[in-house]
From TrEMBL:
The keyword Nucleotide-binding applies. Belongs to the glutamate--cysteine ligase type 1 family. Type 1 subfamily. It comes from Pseudomonas reidholzensis. Gene3D superfamilies: 3.30.590.20. GO terms for biological process: glutathione biosynthetic process. Keywords: ATP-binding, Glutathione biosynthesis, Ligase, Nucleotide-binding. Pfam families: Glu_cys_ligase (PF04262). Its EC number is 6.3.2.2. This is Glutamate--cysteine ligase. It comes from the Bacteria. InterPro entries: Gln_synth/guanido_kin_cat_dom (IPR014746), Glu_cys_ligase (IPR007370), Glut_cys_ligase (IPR006334).
């Protein structure tokens, strides 16, 4: 164990109650599908409220791609309970539609028939819509139907001054120390996130129609299903987002300033193929601008530094002005065997894993190591369960199982500390469950998915629909209490009223609104 980690563990041991102040939040994306396992072509159900203004139930890329958002809470059990309540409420309003159980999409209609999410006539609603039209233009609509789970995590605000006082008194201010520490967490996450793909990857197969006839290296499991025998997460492989425009955009997270700077430049730098298309076609907006990124959120990464934004503020402005507040882990697949796609043991493990990333030594990432992180990650998503698979560590080969067991060993003291703070042994148990998957690859979700499909002689779509039906039944059998049902109904009604009010009181022209929005990012200088 490094000296730094040792001293930080001692400091935390002396301030144990702090560990109960970590905050957690979950965003779960999820397609609405028909009882035939096809994409629902219906509009976002009005009973769920306004996708623009309902803080818990919205849409992501497509009108058919729901997104559920929990509040940030100190207790992950309460976060999951909230997520489950949202699922139950939504299922109660879906009629004969289902919530799709895995990350990879159902059988999709023709590209142009995948509906883009619509947010009404307000300027901000139109901005969201045009941004999505731009995504369709740049990456195609099919890619945008992939769903995932985002796990938001922050360490207690009160911890940073204590750490700074112990390690760097009189150096940078608390805010800069905190931002540096979160960027260091992200560097370690880049080093070790392959482990999460092995343990929780759950997309080893997909519907053959997803590739739209593009060339690929996948194998046929059956006539309708493509897969790779040792894959953990095809969602996170190079089958997912391929962007030539973003290829040169690899912020290596050595400090917050260089990260925000690279994003700011990308939002302000024209990309010739997009310039050729322009922003308008037949008088209609088709993309917000012709730059590498339309907005900073278009940059696809496995983890993001984040800060809660004020009304009208852009994510990058918030980071530059007030520093990093939490991280958003974006590489998690939805587990099709779990009703809400994630469970408490996984959340407990993620907390211990992220604590290790935050508290351990995290040297700067040189170009060589940056490339090594990327290739390790891609090896594991495509063939993580291959017996004897080797990764690269410090330029030397190391067997995945050996490195994984070592990492779990290093996480153990963090899990023990969390258990001390919370009482019980839930974090230690979660860790033991992960070690079992390292010892026996057949216990991983990706292996379980393939085993279940083979056992039932099912295509990917049939397996996924069966799981979706099982989960719907679970939600229906345990309806919300009348009070909670009422609370969600009220939230939905109020969000519709809020959108209507926004549209009625809107002042100013959309073109000017977009112009001001673009200018806001160009005006920032570090």
């Amino acid at each position: 164990m490094s000296d730094l980690l040792n001293s930080r563990l001692s400091l935390l041991s002396a301030n144990l109650p702090l560990l109960k102040q970590c905050l957690h939040g979950i965003e779960r994306e999820c397609l609405r599908v028909t009882d035939q396992g096809r994409l629902a072509q219906t509009p976002h159900p009005e009973a769920l409220g306004s996708a623009l203004t309902n803080e818990q139930i919205t849409t992501d890329y497509s009108e058919s791609l729901l997104e559920f958002i929990t509040p940030a809470l100190a207790d992950p059990a309460a976060v999951l309970e909230n997520l489950e309540e949202v699922h139950r409420f939504v299922q109660s309003k879906l009629g004969d539609e289902y919530l799709w159980s895995p990350s990879m999409p159902c059988a999709l209609p023709a590209e142009e028939d995948i509906p883009i999410a619509y947010y009404g006539s307000s300027n901000i609603g139109q901005l969201k819509y045009v941004y999505r039209k731009g995504l369709a233009l740049r990456y195609g609509r099919t890619m945008q139907c992939i769903a995932g789970i985002h796990y938001n995590f922050s360490l207690p605000e009160a911890l940073w001054p204590l750490l700074r006082e112990a390690e760097a008194p009189g150096s940078e201010c608390d805010r800069d120390f905190q931002s540096s520490a979160y960027i260091a967490l992200i560097r370690n996450f880049r080093r070790y996130s392959w482990l999460l793909m092995y343990l929780f990857g759950a997309s080893p197969a997909l519907d053959a129609g997803f590739l739209r006839g593009r060339p690929h290296q996948l194998e046929h499991l059956d006539a309708d299903t493509l897969y790779l025998p040792y894959a953990t997460s095809l969602r996170m492989s190079d089958l997912g987002y391929q962007s030539n425009a973003q290829a040169g955009l690899t912020p290596c997270y050595n400090d917050l300033a260089s990260y925000t700077d690279s994003l700011r430049k990308a939002v302000g730098t024209p990309y010739p193929p997009y310039v050729e298309v322009g922003t308008h076609k037949d008088g209609e907006w088709v993309q917000l601008n012709t730059n590498i990124l339309q907005i900073e959120n278009e940059y696809y990464s496995n983890i993001r530094p984040k800060r809660v934004t004020y009304t009208g503020e852009r994510p990058i402005q918030a980071l530059i002005a007030r520093g990093v507040q939490y991280v958003e882990v974006r590489c998690l697949d939805i587990n099709p065997f779990l009703p809400v796609g994630i469970d408490l043991p996984q959340a407990r493990f993620l907390d211990a894993f992220l604590l290790l990333c935050a508290l351990d030594d995290s040297p700067q990432l040189g170009n060589g190591e940056c490339g090594q992180c990327t290739s390790n990650f891609l090896s594991v998503v495509k063939e993580g369960r291959r017996p004897g698979l080797e990764l690269q560590r410090n330029g030397q080969p190391i067997e995945l199982k050996v490195w994984a067991s070592e990492l779990l060993g290093r996480i153990a003291p963090l899990a023990a500390l969390l258990d001390q703070a919370h009482g019980g042994d839930e974090h230690a148990k979660a860790l033991t469950a992960q070690q079992a998957k390292v010892d026996d690859a057949s216990l991983t979700p990706s292996a379980q998915v393939l085993a279940r499909m083979t056992e039932h002689d099912e295509s990917f779509v049939k397996f996924s629909l069966r799981q979706s039906e099982l989960h719907a039944e679970t939600f229906r059998e345990q309806p919300l209490s009348p009070e909670r049902q009422q609370a969600f109904e009220t939230l939905a009604r109020e969000s519709l009223a809020k959108q209507a009010e926004l549209e009625q009181t809107e002042v100013g022209d959309f073109d000017l609104f977009v112009g001001a929005y673009q200018a806001s990012i160009l005006a920032i200088s570090n």
